[in-house]
Amino acid sequence: MFTKVLISDDLDSINHGVMTVAASLGIQEVIQVQYCDDAYLKLKKAAADGQPFDLLITDLSFKMDHREQKYPSGDALIKAVREAFPNLQIAVYTVEDRLQRVRSLMQNNFADAYVCKGRKGLVELSHAIRALDEEKTYLSPQIAHALNDREALEIDDYDIVLLQLLSRGLSQDEVSSHFKNSNISPSSLSSIEKRLNKLRIQFKANNAIHLVAIVKDIGLI
Question: What pTM value is reported for the model?
Fold first, then answer.
């Protein structure tokens, strides 16, 4: 079992619950912080001292306050940590269950476990820690099911960006201009129209507005 764990969450009540889980698993040293910058600095110092952490458990959303942060979110922290400490195990513990966010972290190997906060959150976190200790990945059951549904859909990151822009009220012409300025291909209006037609058929949507509503409901954007 892990011997040294770092918890990064801005809520004391959450940290207390996670520490209770860690203690029940016999983890000897558990440190908690409320800022992502502090988490990164503690990881860096521990590694420099030759006493590195075995596991990082972090939330994704952190409320902004008077203190300026280099890493304002768990996402930013995780990506920086993965680059600096590639062998460190990382578990996400969050209320965020949007499909694309889960996929981004898990499929790009930024996180090793993704646990949803909720009534069974701490129980699932315990399962996740045990799985990671055995060098296995872990997803909360509701997320695993959602990922399977997502994988069954023929939809990629280009489609996600397209749908996100439409959800912000951009017209297809404006989306085309945005893609051209951002060097995203294909960017022509005809290509965007064809892509939207494919998505409307796939999701059985009556129009673009209906399409955006559907993908929001199932957590794709």
Answer: 0.71
